């Protein structure tokens, strides 16, 4: 038996196709009793609106483009989980893509999205704002997450990386730790630069006698493990390690323990983000509410798509210190003031 069409519904209800379409799409111009009759007929015939035709008639794709620097790892899984939670609530689909730091490749990704989505959510802290401008589709609502610098005319959701790193620094200072290794992210990455700067500034304020050695990683677990191995091989004096994200902290933590280093008695370890695995490994970290940031970005974007006025306001999330066993805590929350 052939599937019922909107024309079948219109014929059975003795109304025009346009009237049926308006009723099923929730237009306020349709009287309640007429809408009820049309819905009853549609249910009787088993009519299901065709999503593709419906989106064409409404000039909407009902999809949001999400461009992330990586599609792997707990941080990105969490942020996509938050985005998907809000998108699903609004009947929207997510179209995911990986963003490369090269501006030419970035332009190719954005052009591939154009015409297929109603708006964009972009996170790419390894690119400077002026590298983005020429690639952005004109007229397409776009929200940036943690962009490296303000994007002219574009709203954004930001993490206060400096404050998050500063609360870790103050925590180390209060513990009396003075021989610090900071495992930084890539130098080109805006998040990495801000976290290093915030940490060093706060250590200079709270423990001016502290010595800080900086080693570089790539935000992945293996680079944290490699940093710990370098610490041990070089005999670097250390009583605390701050990694610029949790995954590098996890790699460092595992390598130190495998080498017989006591954590936190010999070396305290802290990360940044509070990804799910941090809780299971009892890792001290700076919590940013990753899924909530993803959800909020979708809320702002869908409001814009639906016609709400938008400005270039920057909405900032302030991390909070979560003290756990890797620095000698018992899972308590500490304040956010630096």
Q: Care to describe what's here?
A:
- This protein is of the alpha/beta class and 338 residues long.
- 43% of the residues lie in helices and 16% in strands.
- The chain has twelve helices and twelve strands.
- It has helices spanning 6-13, 17-24, 32-45, 51-57, 74-89, 103-113, 161-175, 190-206, 221-234, 246-258, 276-280, 290-305, and strands spanning 63-68, 93-98, 119-122, 142-145, 156-159, 179-184, 211-216, 240-243, 268-270, 285-287, 314-317, 320-322.
- The protein has a six-stranded parallel sheet, sandwiched between helices. Strands 7-6-8-9 form a four-stranded parallel sheet, sandwiched between helices. It has a two-stranded antiparallel ribbon with strand order 10-12.
Brief description of this entry?
The protein has 338 residues and is of the alpha/beta class. The chain contains twelve helices and twelve strands.
What's the gyration radius in Å? 25 Å
Question: Average pLDDT across residues?
Answer: 85
Order of helices and strands: HHHHEHEHEEEHEHEHEHEHEHEE
Label the overall shape.
Answer: elongated
Strand order of the largest sheet: 2-1-3-4-5-11
- Poorly predicted ranges: 331-338
Contiguous helical run count = 12
Oligomeric form: single chain
Largest sheet: 6 strands, parallel
Broad structural category: alpha/beta
Report the portion of residues in β strands: 15-25%
Helical amount: 40-55%
Number of strands: 12
Alpha-carbon distance between the termini? 68 Å
């Amino acid at each position: 038996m052939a599937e019922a069409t909107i024309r079948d519904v219109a014929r059975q209800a003795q109304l025009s196709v346009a009237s049926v379409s308006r009723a099923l799409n929730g237009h306020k111009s349709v009287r309640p009793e007429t809408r009820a009759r049309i819905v009853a007929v549609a249910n009787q015939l088993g009519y299901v609106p065709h999503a593709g035709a419906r989106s064409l008639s409404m000039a909407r794709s009902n999809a949001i483009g999400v461009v992330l620097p990586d599609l792997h790892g707990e941080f990105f899984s969490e942020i996509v989980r938050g985005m998907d939670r809000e998108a699903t609530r609004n009947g929207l689909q997510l179209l995911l893509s990986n963003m490369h730091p090269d501006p030419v490749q970035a332009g190719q990704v954005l052009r591939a999205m154009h015409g297929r989505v109603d708006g964009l959510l972009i996170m790419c802290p390894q690119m400077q704002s002026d590298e983005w401008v020429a690639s952005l589709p004109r007229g397409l609502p776009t929200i940036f997450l943690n962009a490296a610098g303000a994007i002219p005319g574009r709203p954004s959701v930001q993490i206060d990386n400096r404050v998050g790193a500063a609360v870790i620094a103050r925590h180390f200072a209060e513990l009396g730790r003075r021989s610090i290794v900071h495992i930084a992210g890539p130098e080109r990455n805006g998040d990495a630069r801000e976290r290093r700067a915030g940490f060093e500034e706060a250590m200079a304020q709270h423990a001016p006698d502290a010595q800080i050695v900086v080693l570089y990683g790539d935000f992945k677990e293996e680079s944290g493990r490699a940093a710990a191995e370098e610490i041990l091989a070089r005999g670097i004096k250390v009583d605390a390690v701050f990694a610029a994200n949790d995954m590098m902290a996890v790699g460092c933590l595992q390598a130190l323990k495998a080498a017989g280093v006591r954590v936190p008695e010999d070396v305290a370890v802290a990360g940044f983000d509070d990804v799910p695995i941090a809780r299971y490994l009892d890792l001290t970290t700076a919590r940013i509410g990753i899924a909530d940031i993803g959800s909020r970005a979708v809320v702002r974007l869908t409001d814009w798509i639906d016609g709400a006025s938008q400005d270039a306001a920057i909405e900032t999330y302030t991390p909070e210190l979560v003290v756990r066993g890797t620095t000698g805590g018992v899972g308590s929350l500490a304040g956010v003031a630096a």
